[in-house]
Fold each of these.
Amino acid sequence: MLTQEELTRFHEHGFLVVKQLASPTDVKQMLRVTLDGLANEIAPLEYEADLRYPGAPTSKQAPGGRTIRRLKQAFSRDFVFTEWMVRPEVLGRIKQIVGDQVICPLAHHNCIMTKHPDYSSATGWHQDVRYWSFTRPELVNAWIALGEETVANGCLKVIPGSHKLALEPWQLDDQLFFRQDEPRNEPWLKQAVSVPLSAGDVLFFHARTLHSAGRNTTTLTKHSVVFTFRPADNPPVPGSRSAALPELLLTP
Ligand SMILES: O=C(O)CCC(=O)C(=O)O
């Protein structure tokens, strides 16, 4: 379970790393599913060229155009993902952060992120809730590293305390990224920290925590699994994209 100190740190900073919260056996199985999904281009998936973030191929026909950014609907690819989230040491910690009744929306995250050496993109500063529609912007993400995550291969960077920020329109560009060219954002950007992880480590972060990631400058692909969780009293807005898919009820 999380210590009181860890819980306080999460609420204060908007993120927390729990080392080795996915066992080597779970990581191995998640990786097996990932490599199979990548090798066989198993849908649903998203290509780097679909988003065209900085560094991505300009089209699917361009060199590296079929580089996969994420394998979507991770949950339905293998039972290991559900098994992992209901393991007592995992669900117990999620309950400590989210509350006693935990729900896993399947419309957001629920994916395996891959970062390829040659054609991966950089992701600008953003809050995940920017395109999500829930009663309150209160969800918590779990990012599971399936291998080493370092600055060199594009690990996540976060801005501590930014989950408490009520962002103003002038702070964001037209895609709702936190503007790096806005001098008044500078004091926040200066506080950014990188979050290196090892295989099996889990980064919990609030869905309002500003985060970004660089490109992969190494020769090996980086793989990570990410899910989001919400308390039962924070349902998606009816008719929104967030309500478009069913959800997993993880607790009675
Ligand atoms: O790995 C990355 O480039 C960042 C991914 C991310 O932050 C996201 O998809 O919300």
Amino acid sequence: MKQNKQLLDLKNTSSLVTGAAQGFGFAIARRLAEAGSNVVVADIKLENAQKSAKRISEEFAVVVDSCELDVADESQVIKIFSRYPNIDFLINNAGVFSNYTVTNLSSEEFDRIIRVNVRGVFLCSREFAKTKESNGNGNGKVIVNIASVDALNPSCVGQVHYTSSKHAVAGLTKGLSVELAPKGMRVCAVCPGAALTEGAIELVQSGSPDGIDIAEQWAGIAKQTPMGRLISPDDVALAVLFLVSPMGASITGILLPVDGGITSQPYEGYLESK
Ligand SMILES: NC(=O)c1ccc[n+]([C@@H]2O[C@H](COP(=O)([O-])OP(=O)(O)OC[C@H]3O[C@@H](n4cnc5c(N)ncnc54)[C@H](O)[C@@H]3O)[C@@H](O)[C@H]2O)c1
């Protein structure tokens, strides 16, 4: 039986994290590297990916590589997974978001969100699974999708496109887990609540083109959260670390909320104390 400290030892493994130049992706790549996994920092913004990879490699004695990858571009995805055929852990983190109420939501914006958040997860998972098939070695390989609490219920108004995309990530997670389990592979999703990552800060600071007061919306989310705070990138990274590690060995097909309790709210008034 493995000792506790061995359970978090990821030496001799490799991980690829999409959208890892900043935000959750960076925090995830950093924690995986700390556990001893060699890491590929993949991002649509190469220069940012290179800078983030450098920061991680200065901190931990693992191999840290970086690459340019648009997860929704099929030829790029195929190329990257043939360049890195020995990845053990794929973290599908890259994602985009915006705020528009449905009557102001253009079909172009709807497609943009679906393209990255859904097609991107599909393409990377498919190519990852293919490399395991051709290696004949799926055992112990893990995919973790960074979904959202929006994979369970809408978090706020202005999110029809985003909520749809994250519900689809929930479907991908469950469907992939069923198909890949016989090959020894596990597929899970982490469902974070709101976190002030670089991307989220940009959204809050830019204000919604649709006139939604996003700053007020996010302050409201923190207030409504039973733990009384937003989520941090490291909260998400620790959940990913748990799921890919041998501690998660029997866990597949799950949607794990990391949300300070916001999805466990009683219906309004239901539990009001008298
Ligand atoms: N921040 C939140 O409150 C929150 C909550 C729940 C879920 N999420 C999800 O977590 C993930 C990360 O979000 P974040 O807040 O860290 O965002 P972020 O904007 O801070 O970082 C996202 C990174 O992904 C990269 N990226 C964007 N499009 C890409 C593409 N097509 N291919 C590859 N890389 C791409 C960006 O360059 C950026 O480096 C997303 O899937 C998001 O939907 C975020």
